[in-house]
Model the fold of this input.
Amino acid sequence: MTLPNAQPAAAPLPLKASEPPHPRLRARTIVLVGLMGSGKSTVGRGLAAALQLPFRDADEEIERAARRTVAEIFTERGEREFRDGERRVIARLITSEPPHVLAAGGGAFMDAETRALARRAALCVWLKADLEVIARRVGRRNTRPLLHGRDPMEVLHAQAAQRYAHYAEAHVTVATADANVGVSVANVLEALHAHFDREAQA
Done:
């Protein structure tokens, strides 16, 4: 089933997974969490292609609902109103849409309600990358409101201190480092296979 407004996933990547994806990978939405620049959208598109699932980006869904860019929402309405909208959009995507791969915003998992829903009704994957790698990535773009006029490393260190404990509540953690997309997708699939194995043995 194709989701309305779902982005077409790219052609499937040549993965090196040792076994086909577990059938349960297509039964629930997979939510990717992590700091900005950790690869959620890029890896998410590759993962969606590999699993033949639709891909959704939470920020793009928020922009569509608000008819404003994320930067405009922050400027005109403030972060609190953005987070309220983010919570509602993610809840709708998880509870009302068929299974898909969802790239959540960097701060979304900080919300206790969103975190509890995602852990209960979806599969949560923390994409964890070195801060130096992330700083290089986000430094190439000027579209991130939380970085305007600030040093990226300073912001990332502060966010890591605030957010890592919450990200660690994801079902699995995958270190993305500076690996290419195909390797990162394969690592996510391997981590989810291991998660299902642990569940089966519990």
In short: The domain at 31-173 is CATH 3.40.50.300 (Rossmann fold). The chain has one domain: 31-173. The CA atoms of residues 126 and 173 lie 5 Å apart. Confidence is low (pLDDT under 50) at residues 7-18.
